[in-house]
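Sharing a chain and its predicted structure for anyone who wants a worked example. Both blocks are below, sequence first, tokens second.
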Amino acid sequence: MKYKLLIAIAFLSVLASCSNDSDTNSDTNFMPLSIGNYWKYNVVSNGQTMRDSLYISNDTTINTKIYKKLKTRNNPTGFFSNSLNKNGLRREGSSLFLSGSLALDFGVGVPINLSVSEFVIFNETATNNQQLGSVSGTINQTVGTYPLVIDYTLKSIAIESLPTYTSNGRVYSDVKRVKTILNAKITTTTTVVILGVPTPFVVTILSPQDVVVSNQYYSKNIGMVYTNTLINYQLNSLPGGFALPIPSSGSQSQDEFLDAYNVSP
């Protein structure tokens, strides 16, 4: 009887060991992070095609955690490469964490430079429409003679899982789509004279709106294979006397197609 019990315990131990191994192997590999891995993208925008080359250069330590440092060969033009350039990316469990500084420009000549720490850009096990990461903040920036206050929220959302996805004539398997959204509000303070008294007056230049909406498609064992980014904004009607060096509205679509890559797990 004791012998049978020992066999049963041993059998259960083996099962537990196999289960643990399976959990370890389930770590996401939708963005292989070995040093030397690279991805080359054709970036199409406004009828022009440019080239981004993104690669993993080295290990880097950020807040005691080891990240992979990503760089581009030249100044990146695509949203995805620009977001990862000179920043750290690390994998833990089913998630990808991004830390660093992002310079996001939504076409008005007012780039939003924001910092992110442990911002989740991808999660393999997320359900459809599950929010992955969110960061909010305020940036003070001067454009022309106007001191601008930019309130922003950057968030990432898991949208869907696809058995296959076709991009630029290529068919990719096991694909997951993630949406990244930048919402912004811009105000400035000017002085108006009321009954002979100079009085500060806050003017809302840009009402809260999603100025950047980007969809990234990740294929297992490859990485990001396609990104479409829409940039739209509409400024409010401003009082007379305002002469902002910013177009009153803007709209742009950008596509990043994976053209070549070399990755190892």
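Comments welcome. Residues 29-235+249-260 form a domain with the YmcC-like fold fold (CATH 2.40.360).
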